[in-house]
Each structure stands twice: as C-alpha cells, then as structure tokens.
Design a protein that fits this description.
Elements (H helix, E strand, L loop, with lengths): L8 H21 L3 H11 L5 H26 L4 H21 L9 H16 L14 H21 L4 H12 L4 H25 L5 H51 L2
Helix pairs in contact: 1-2, 1-3, 1-8, 1-9, 2-3, 3-8, 3-9, 4-6, 4-8, 5-9, 6-7, 6-8, 7-8, 8-9
Length: about 260
C-alpha cells in the first residue's frame, strides 16, 4: 500500500527535494516559492490551483518558522517593530487568500515582473545597499511604513505568493535602512505571519492536502535551518548575493509565465 495515497513515492520524493531547496533559499533571501510552488503544480496536476496554494503554505510555514526562531536567537531584531509589520501582514494575507480562487493570478504577473525588475536593478546599482545598518525615518514613521507594507505584501502573499520575501527585503533594506541580515530575520517572522493567515483561510475552506503538506514541511524545516545558519555565518554581504540571484531567477520565471499567458 502506498503511504501517500494516489501520489507515487517518486513524486513525493521530487516534491520533498523541492521543499528542502525552497526552505534553504527562503531562509536566506526569500523566494522559496520559486522552487516549491512549481514543483507542487507539477506533482499535483489533478488538484485545483487553490488547493496547491494552500498545501504550499502549510509546508512553507514549517521551514519559515524554524528559520525565524534561529534568526531570533542569533540576530535578535527589534521585536516591537517586527510585530507592527507581522500583524497587519496576517490580516492582509487572510484577505488575499479569500480572493485567491476568484482573481486570475496571470493578471498579476506583468505587474510583479516590472516590480521585480526594478528591485533587481536598484539593488545591483547600489553595491553597498544593506551592508551596514543605517535606519531611516523616526520610530513612528518606520512603524507606519511597516504597517502599510505588511498589509500590502501580506495580501499579495495570500492571493499569489512568489516574490513575497523579495518585496519584504526591499522595504526593509531600501526604504527603512536595515542591513540584509537583520532584514532577513524580520522578513522570516512576517512570512510566518502571512503563511499562517493563508492557512487559516485555506483550512477553513478545506482546500489543503494536510498529509502532503506536513510531510513536505519536515523537508522544509531542514532546508530552513541550513539556510539560516549559512546566512548568519555569511552575513549581509552573502545574503545580498543570494538575494540578487533569487531576484534574477524570479524575473526570468515570472517573465516566461507572463509571455506564455499573453
């Protein structure tokens, strides 16, 4: 008897490897959805897209949580500021997940492509960006930026997802002045929040493959812990390099998808 039901063992192994890789990349610079979500779409061809999105969120939250805990122990970001971004992101993600089955995601791809291209170019032409922490704005203004960005990016993560970590990192580094390592630490907590919000909505609507998501979640944890350790050891310069690499892959992937559905 196949423990995975109708899913072949080879397919589960393929998705497990993708979950491991996604957890690793996501813990360093975000962008794990670039690997895991397409793998689930390939491995679960008979499942509705909204069910794949829900299962992807369940799996992702394990690795993201493990990475967030490890970052918290080593980097120790501003806890109050992180809450100001994470709680609105939770609400935004729940709203996005509610609309996930009604709004065609291909309509968002051209916008996401342009935004990612802008992020990549901006980061590339500012080689010292995020190497040193130089916080900008007053405490009050930083918190308002965190709230607005949290709601907007959370909504995007609930309704679509790929590139969420990249958008979080951009706001934290380019707009608020955090170093890449600190930004990655804060982004992990916010990402846990957005995943949690989406899981609540998808779970209530019964569109999560719980067994698949939990199994893949174990692989995601392993990747998340490995990625977080490497990021902490390599520092902001290392995180910046991975961030640029992942952003380039996202631009390519979203660009191809946009042309395919043109």
């Amino acid at each position: 008897m196949n423990f995975f039901g109708d899913i072949p063992t080879f397919t589960m192994a393929f998705m497990g490897l993708a979950a491991l890789s996604a957890g690793f990349i996501d813990a360093i610079a975000g962008g794990g959805g670039l690997i895991q979500l397409p793998a689930l779409l390939i491995g679960l061809p008979q499942s509705p897209t909204v069910q794949v999105l829900g299962t992807n969120k369940l799996s992702s939250i394990f690795g993201t949580t493990a990475a967030a805990i490890l970052y918290r122990r080593r980097v120790k970001p501003d806890f109050i500021f992180t809450l100001f971004m994470a709680l609105p992101a939770l609400i935004g993600s729940m709203c996005g997940a509610l609309l996930a089955s009604y709004i065609p995601t291909h309509a968002l791809r051209p916008i996401v492509f342009v935004l990612l291209l802008g992020i990549g170019i901006y980061t590339w032409i500012h080689p010292t960006l995020g190497h040193i922490e130089e916080l900008r704005h007053t405490h009050k203004r930083r918190r308002w930026i965190a709230i607005v960005a949290g709601v907007g990016i959370g909504f995007y993560d609930g309704i679509f997802g790929p590139g969420t970590g990249t958008f979080l990192m951009l706001v934290l580094v380019a707009s608020l002045g955090f170093a890449f390592l600190s930004a990655s630490s804060i982004a992990k907590v916010v990402n846990v929040s957005t995943n949690c919000g989406a899981i609540i909505i998808f779970g209530v609507h019964g569109v999560i493959l719980w067994k698949v998501g939990l199994i893949l979640g174990m692989a995601n944890i392993a990747g998340g812990l490995l990625g977080a350790r490497m990021a902490i050891r390599g520092g902001s310069a290392f995180v910046r390099k991975i961030f640029l690499f992942v952003t380039a892959l996202l631009i390519f992937k979203v660009g191809v998808d946009t042309l395919t559905h043109w």
